[in-house]
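Might I ask for a little of your time on a matter of protein folding? The record follows directly beneath this note:
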Amino acid sequence: MALTAYALEKLSTSQIARMYGISENYLVKIATQLSKGGFVVSESGRGGGLTLAVLVVDISIGAVLRALKKNEPVAECFGSKTSCAILPTCSLRGPLLEAQEAFFAALVGYSLADVAKAKGYLKDLIAV
C-alpha cells in the first residue's frame, strides 16, 4: 500500500517499517518474497529502495497473499511438523483446505488499484 501511495518514489524498508510501526527485519522478509514474486523491484545501495514492478491494476491481492502465505498452512495438520493426535481420523482437513482456497480465490478478483482508491488520503495516514 505504501508503494502505491508513493508510486513515484523509491521507499526503503526502514521508511515503510516506520510508516506501519512494524519491525524492519520482518518487512525485509516480506519485501524479499514480494520481489521474488515479481510484485516489487528491490534496489540495494545508496539511492536504492522498493518500487512496484508492475501497474497497480495488474497486481492481484489474491496473488500477493498467496505468494506471502504459500509456506504457512491454514492449520497445523497441513504442515510437515504436526502433533495433532486425531490426524488419522480427522475429517476437517478437506473443508479447511477448501476454505483456504476460497479465501485466495475471492481476493484474486481484486487488484491493488481497487483497494488503494484513496491514495491521497492513504499518503496522509502513512507520511514518510
Remarks:
- The chain has two domains: 1-59+111-128, 73-110.
- Helices lie at 2-5, 13-20, 24-36, 61-69, 93-108, 112-115, 119-125.
